[in-house]
Design goal:
single chain; hpI Integrase, Chain A; about 280 residues
Length: about 280
C-alpha cells in the first residue's frame, strides 16, 4: 500500500505540474505505518556450519560468494565470467536477473519471464573485491563448468554465466531460493531469507570495524543512511563489548576502599528524603 501510494503520488504530482488535475488527491490519503521486516543474519559459527554442510553442493560457490560480497540475488545470478577478474580478485556488477510479466504470453505460455537488466542506479554498478579463498573456489568451479560444456556440446546454451543450470541456462530466482532453503535444512540451521545472507555480510563487515562508507559502496546503496538504518545489525557480544568500554569512560573516579571518609556519606532518614525531593523538583 505504501508503494502504491508513492507511485500514485508521483504520477499525480506530475499531472498537477502539467495542469491536467487541479489537486493531488493522494495528499489526503493516510498511508499505513511502515513495518520493518525482522532481519536474521547468520552468526560466524552458523556461517561455518552452513558452508561445511553444503561443500559438495552444486551451488556451494554461489552461497560462498554471496556471504563474501553481499550481492543482491539478481546480481549474483546475473554474474558473468567476463564480469569476474580472477587475477585481480574482483568482480563488476553490470547486470541483474529479474522476473517480469510476460505481456506476449499466449495460451499455456508462462505469464512471467526471466530477463537481464542493467542496474537501476549508478551506485549499483560497482566493483567488489573477492576474498582469496573464494577465488580458489571460483577457479575450480570454472573448470567444472568447462567440462560440462564439452560433454553437452551443441545442447549447451552459453550465456557466459558464473552460476547457471547444467545446460548453461540462467537459474530461476525462485528455484534458487528454494534450493537455499534446503541447504539451510541440511545444515540444521533455522530458516532465513536468502537476502539475510546479504545482511550477514554487512553485519560481519561492521563488526570487523569496516568503514560504513566502504560498506555502503560495496552494497551499492545510494545513501549511507540506508546502510546504517537497515543493515547494521551488530551481535549481542559486540554490543556488550562496546558498552563495557563506555563504562570505563563514564566513571573515572577510583572505587577503592581507602577513599577518604566523607567523600560519599550515606544518606539516611530525613537527609535522604530531602535529597530525593530536591532531585524531583529539578
Amino acid at each position: 500500500m505504501r508503494y502504491l501510494h508513492a507511485v500514485l503520488y508521483g504520477a499525480l504530482q506530475q499531472a498537477l505540474k502539467n495542469q491536467l488535475v487541479v489537486r493531488n488527491v493522494t495528499e489526503a490519503a493516510r498511508r499505513p505505518g511502515e513495518v520493518k521486516r525482522e532481519i536474521l543474519p547468520l552468526t560466524l559459527p552458523q556461517v561455518d556450519q552452513l558452508l561445511t554442510a553444503i561443500k559438495q553442493d552444486r551451488q556451494f560457490v554461489a552461497v560462498f560468494l554471496e556471504l563474501g560480497t553481499g550481492l543482491r540475488r539478481g546480481e549474483l545470478l546475473a554474474l558473468r565470467w567476463q564480469d569476474v577478474v580472477l587475477d585481480a580478485e574482483l568482480l563488476h556488477v553490470r547486470q541483474t536477473l529479474v522476473r517480469v510479466r510476460n505481456h506476449e504470453a499466449t495460451g499455456s505460455d508462462r505469464r512471467t519471464a526471466l530477463v537481464f537488466q542493467k542496474p537501476k542506479t549508478r551506485s549499483s554498478r560497482r566493483a567488489i573485491p573477492i576474498p582469496q579463498d573464494i577465488i580458489v573456489e571460483l577457479k575450480a568451479h570454472k573448470a567444472r563448468q568447462a567440462q560440462e560444456k564439452l560433454l553437452l556440446g551443441e545442447a549447451y546454451r552459453d550465456h557466459g554465466l558464473v552460476f547457471r543450470l547444467a545446460d548453461g541456462r540462467p537459474l530461476d530466482t525462485r528455484n534458487f531460493t528454494r534450493h537455499f532453503d534446503r541447504m539451510l535444512q541440511r545444515a540444521g540451521l533455522p530458516h532465513i531469507r536468502f537476502h539475510d545472507a546479504r545482511h550477514t555480510f554487512t553485519t560481519v563487515m561492521l563488526e570487523l570495524k569496516a568503514s560504513p562508507k566502504a560498506v555502503q559502496e560495496l552494497l551499492g546503496h545510494s545513501k549511507i543512511a540506508t546502510t546504517m538504518d537497515i543493515y547494521a545489525h551488530v551481535s549481542w557480544d559486540v554490543k556488550k563489548q562496546e558498552m563495557g568500554q563506555l563504562n570505563h569512560v563514564l566513571w573515572r573516579k577510583p572505587r577503592t576502599s581507602d577513599a577518604a571518609e566523607g567523600d560519599n556519606p550515606p544518606l539516611e532518614g530525613l537527609a535522604y528524603r530531602e535529597r530525593v525531593l530536591r532531585a524531583c523538583r529539578i
